[in-house]
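Support reply, case 0932

Customer input (verbatim):
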Amino acid sequence: MTVAALANRAHAYRIATAAWAVIILAACGKSEPPAAAQQPVPVQVFKTVARNLPVTFDFVGQTQSDQAVDIRARVSGFLIKRNYREGADVKADQLLFEIDHKPFQAQLDAAKAQLQQQKARLEVARANLTRVKPLAERNALSQKDLDDANGNFHEAAAGVEQAQAEVETQKLNLSYTYVRAPVDGVSSFAVLPEGAYVSTTNSLLTTVSTLEPMRINFSVSEPQTLQFRAQQRDNTLVVPADRHYTVTVMMADGTEYPQKGRITFADATYNQQTGTFLVRALMPNPEGLLRPGQFVRVLVDGAMRPNAIVVPQRAVMHGPKGDVVFVIGKDNKAVPRPVMVGELSGSMWRIAKGLEPGEIVVVDGAGKLTEGAPVHVTGEAPLAAVGEGSRPASQPASAPAAAQKS
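Our regenerated output:
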């Protein structure tokens, strides 16, 4: 290779090296653009306050007649007539069924005849004693004759009493062929048709159930009772001093029954099969709107949670790790706060643990927040109506009826 060619080749290499240096220096001179600042999230907030919160406990109950009477035949015979309309209201002493009267009328007639026979025998014995007694006093007859006459008289008198009792028995048996309602109430269906033979093995004819008042039965579990008592000891729940609770019934269509009841009975023994004990309320039923066997919601009012903290229901977010609310810190940033919720009261959750009075909780916009996100408060959510008339939306964990046992 000539000297000129080598010189040209070295010149080209220097030019290429200079070009690469310019490119590298230009690339190193560039700087990254500044990151855009995170925009504040608009939120609506709620300031927590401590207040006395009325508590409503929710149960499922069933209505029961205060007096459900099985109407049974007390004598055997053919059922000849039904004198009421099935399902209709009946009055006390109203005739419901008739059993064939003829055999019992015949037995009554025979008993009356036997009574007359015994009365005639008594008259003979009395007349004989009247004759024997003075003769025996004059020793005209022996003492044995007097004793026999006296014994015959008392035997005849006893026979009259026995015959009289038999007549009364047959009168009762005849009256039992007319089956009457023992109480005012609503009748059930007729178990046996007309013409059926009624005996001791199939004596049930129908049932009459009183409607005023109506019992409301519901059950309280053992865990509910224990938790209720623990809350009383911790002073997180205050019960009425007189243990007087107001009971409201919600019908199947969601309407509220107009009358108010009261708890009258709490069983002292737990049911071994269900682990619950029975509580009973008595509900006025003047219009007969409640019927035996209905399932109803039972709302029990009267207890109070002192210094309770509540937040709107939509402020609480439910996740796999538990319930969380977002609290706004002093730097106007969102901080997630785990909480333990109690029962719903109206549209408000009671916060059992995790919040203190005076904290600012995010209500609307919490779904857009992450930890440390800046927020822009657009307004304050109004305090929902919490007080008399508020109703829980879920089954609570404790039960006031257990206070009857404490």
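We compared this against your earlier run and they match. Two observations from our side: Confidence is low (pLDDT under 50) at residues 1-7, 18-31, 385-406. The domain at 101-175 is CATH 1.10.287.470 (Helix Hairpins). Please reopen the case if you see a mismatch on your end.
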